Every structure is written in C-alpha cells, then in structure tokens.
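Title: Comparing notes on inverse folding

I've been comparing how different people in this forum approach sequence design from structure. To keep things fair, I'm posting one structure and asking everyone to reply with a full sequence. Here's the target:
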C-alpha cells in the first residue's frame, strides 16, 4: 500500500513550499501563548482588603496613602504563624467613636468585632485592572478564577474532537480557517463580556483551534518531523516571552485580550497566501478510515497509547502548574514570567542535541526525574532563599518542557499517518486533568509544587 510518506519521497521531504508553509504556521503558535497562560496577567489577584466607606472618607480627609490606611484600619489575622492583614474581614465598628483622627492614628482595635466585606474590596493595583479586580473574584468567590482556566481545558476536549473531525472530513485547510475564525470571534467576545458567566462561556468556545504542530509535521519527511515539531514549539516560547512585555504596557485585561486575539483574525489571510493542504492523489493508494479502536487494536499499539496518555497527563499538569504559579521573585510577576520562559529555549536545543546521539528514552526519563526533583526541592526551600528557589524552579521548568515536547513529537513518530489524528485527540483530552493544576494557582503568593 502506498502511504503518504511514500508520496513525500517523490514530491520532496522539505522543499520550498513546505518551508513556506512551516514558517507561516509557526506564526500561529506564538499568540497561543497568550490564550493558554494569559490568565497569569488577565486574572492576576493583587493584594486586597475590605472597602469601608467610613474609612475611605477618613483617608480622603487626612490624605493618607492606601498602605497607611490599610495598616491602621485593617484587622490582623494569623496565617501560618504570622500576623498579616486580613483580606476577607473588616472591623465592624463606628469609626467616629474609635477616636481615629488625622492626628491620632494609633487606636486599639484588638477587641473590636469583625464582619465580612459588605462593601466590596480595595486593591493594591493602581493603574491596572484584571478581571479579578473588575468582578471582585476574591475570598469566597476566588475559586471562580480557576474556572477561567478550567473552561479552557473543557473547551480543549470539544475543540480537539471538532477540529479533528473537520480535518479528516473536509481537510486541514478548512479546519484551520474555521478555527481561526471562531477564535477571532470568541476572543473579541471575551474582551467585551459584560459579566463573568458570559466570560466563561466565550472562553470555553475560544479553545477551538487547529492542531498546527500535527499539520506541519505531516507535510515533511520522517527525518525532519522531530526538528520541525521542536522548532514549532519554540515559537510558542517566543510568545511566552512577548506576553509579559505586552501585559506590562497594556494595563487593562480587556485590551490585552484584544491584542492576543487580533493575530487570529489576521491568520485568515492565509487563505490567499498559502494553500494549507495540497491534494495528492494516487489511484493505487488504499483509503483507510481511522477509528479510536486502531489505538488499542494490537498489544504494541495498546502499550504505546497507554504510556503516551500517562506521560501526556503528567507533563501537562506539571507544565501548566509551573507556568501559572509565579511569584517566587518577591511578587514581580513580569520578571518571573520572563525568566521562566527563557529556559524553554535551552530545553528545545537539548532535545535536538541529545535525541540523535543517545536516543529518546534516556533524555525523556532524565527530564522527568529532573522536573520532579526540582519541584520537590522548591517546596522545601525557605522563601528567604528566593534566588536559589528561582534557580531550582527554572531547572524544573526546563525538565518538564523537555518532557512535554518529547511526548508530542514521539506521538508523530510512533503512529502511522492515518491514525495519528485520533491519537492526538486522545492525548489532548488529557488537558482535562489540568483542572488539578489550575486549582489555587492564581493568587501568586506562595510557590507550590505540583
């Protein structure tokens, strides 16, 4: 039976047309970083405390700063053996009777009753706005922040099945264009969402995207697929580096969402610039209808499927947990994110350097061991050694990035073309398990081991 790989032997394994398509598809990988981990900035939870109208009036009359007002009027609570300002309670007192004035600032409120935040919150986030500060997603509603990322992963399940069906039924070109059209529409709707419920709905639909990596690896010869796959992932890493720069200068989460979405609208021009799918036909080629049963039909296929599914699950959970849980540089989320993104480039070069010389098993196993050990050590290091903690965490990020990238391109090597799309869909469904990683990853205060 003539295969697509046999046809590539005749038309060229990595010719000029394939290089052009590869270069254009790499551009698609960059904005996905903003979609995947933009929550780090769009859903950032700054320092906050209860708003009290009476305290606000005193502060305005006395000209106190927000930090001074917080020190004088916010109750202290015990957190891990340390007295810190409460984020979810305030004093239930008549401030006119406490004796607090512009001249007499120190008053004893240790026995004053406490109550919940009945008038909203104040945020130490001057000049910036995340959807957390806009919708007050703190305290009892803080779990809703994690739903923002969870709906993305739920949408991943539906999107993988839908785009996989479109690609098999109507071709890669239509699947690519439809994915970008839907992403462009849903991304803008996310930016203009009037409430958090509609935001979550549009966010889930935002996940419908074409699997560009699989498309570019299918267009080249077998010996080029791993290099093409790793280089494609490096453009995602470029997007990771650009994201904190954009977030630093774009202070409103809605406008940041618009900037992240605009490229998907521009990608619709690919219809005119490049033919995503060349139709290659041969009368001697047998047509095969793939199914999910092909993944477990033989003992060897079952073994590959189970191992890859487990490895995808662990890599996805740890990678997303590490990339989203920031703050180990004293709270500077922009610098922390930038540094953690830089280590993805050495990971890509290590893969390209090692797999041809010592194979795949040893680098893959070593990367997982390094990532696990680094995460464990990071959890044991005290916060006072933040530079050491940062270094160890970045080593963990390096290891899990290598592991994740190797899982993806090994998938393209182990499975024949006709069943590769089904396996990719199955593996992508492991993203649902990222719900574990997104739990409590957005307050950006204490480092965590996933």
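Reply #1:
Here's my take.
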């Amino acid at each position: 039976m003539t295969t697509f790989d046999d046809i590539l032997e005749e038309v060229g394994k990595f010719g000029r047309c394939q290089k052009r398509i590869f270069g254009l598809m790499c551009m698609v990988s960059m904005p996905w970083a903003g979609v995947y981990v933009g929550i780090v900035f769009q859903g950032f939870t700054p320092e906050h405390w209860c708003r009290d109208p009476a305290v606000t009036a005193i502060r305005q009359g006395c000209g106190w700063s927000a930090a001074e007002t917080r020190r004088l009027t916010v109750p202290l609570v015990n957190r891990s053996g340390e007295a810190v300002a409460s984020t979810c309670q305030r004093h239930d007192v008549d401030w006119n009777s406490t004796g607090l004035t512009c001249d007499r600032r120190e008053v004893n409120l240790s026995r004053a009753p406490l109550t919940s935040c009945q008038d909203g919150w104040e945020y130490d986030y001057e000049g910036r706005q995340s959807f957390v500060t806009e919708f007050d997603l703190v305290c009892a509603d803080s779990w809703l922040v994690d739903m923002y990322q969870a709906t993305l992963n739920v949408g991943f399940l539906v999107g993988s099945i839908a785009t996989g069906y479109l690609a098999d039924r109507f071709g890669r070109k239509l699947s690519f264009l439809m994915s970008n059209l839907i992403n462009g529409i849903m991304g803008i709707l996310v930016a203009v969402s009037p409430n958090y419920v509609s935001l979550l709905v549009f966010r889930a639909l935002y996940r419908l995207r074409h699997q560009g990596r699989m498309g570019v690896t299918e267009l080249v010869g077998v010996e080029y697929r791993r290099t093409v796959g790793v280089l494609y992932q490096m453009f995602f890493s470029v997007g990771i580096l650009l994201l904190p720069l954009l977030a630093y200068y774009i202070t409103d989460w809605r406008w940041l969402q618009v900037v992240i979405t605009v490229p998907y609208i521009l990608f619709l021009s690919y219809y005119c610039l490049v033919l995503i799918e060349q139709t290659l036909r041969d009368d001697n080629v047998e047509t095969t209808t793939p199914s999910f049963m092909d993944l477990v039909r033989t003992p060897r296929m079952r073994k590959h499927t189970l191992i890859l599914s487990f490895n995808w699950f662990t890599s996805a959970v740890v990678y997303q947990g590490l990339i989203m849980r920031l703050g180990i540089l004293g709270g500077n989320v922009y610098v922390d994110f930038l540094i953690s993104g830089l280590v993805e480039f050495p990971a890509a070069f290590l893969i390209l350097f090692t797999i041809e010389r010592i194979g795949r098993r040893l680098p893959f196993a070593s990367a997982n061991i390094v990532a696990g050990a680094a995460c464990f050590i990071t959890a044991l290091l005290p916060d006072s050694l933040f530079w050491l903690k940062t270094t160890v965490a970045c080593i963990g990020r390096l290891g899990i990035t290598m592991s994740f990238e190797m899982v993806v391109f090994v998938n393209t090597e182990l499975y024949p073309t006709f069943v590769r799309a089904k396996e990719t869909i199955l593996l992508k469904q492991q993203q649902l398990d990222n719900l574990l990683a997104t739990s409590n990853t957005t307050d950006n205060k204490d480092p965590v081991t996933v």
